[in-house]
Amino acid sequence: MQLKMITIDCAEPRDLAKFWTAALGTTVASDYEGHFVMLAPWDSSGVALGLQRVPDPAGGKNRVHIDMHTDDRAAAVDRLVGLGAAVVGEQKVPGLAWTVLADPAGNVFCVGEEQP
């Protein structure tokens, strides 16, 4: 068994796809009449991101979220905020710092950076 896709529930998959394709530097691979939009894998892992229309609004912090890492967290966070993300908070443990953000639909994700 292998991980092939992470799916985010949302109200408007096509709208949210605009944010995530820009954020990840990828494209829409499939669009099933706006009910389910699948993005192309954004790196060599082959893992894709799916956006699935659901009628329920988000009810607080999501139980599963995406963690991304970068060598320049400040620049990545600035770029994501410019695309429509909102900063939720900052966290730090020995050796790692990360910024918690929310995408335009309120789904939480993190951008981390190793610390000396």
From TrEMBL:
Residues 2-114 form the VOC domain. CDD domains: VOC. Gene3D superfamilies: 2,3-Dihydroxybiphenyl 1,2-Dioxygenase, domain 1 (3.10.180.10). InterPro entries: Glyas_Bleomycin-R_OHBP_Dase, Glyoxalase_6, VOC_core. PROSITE patterns: VOC. This is Glyoxalase.
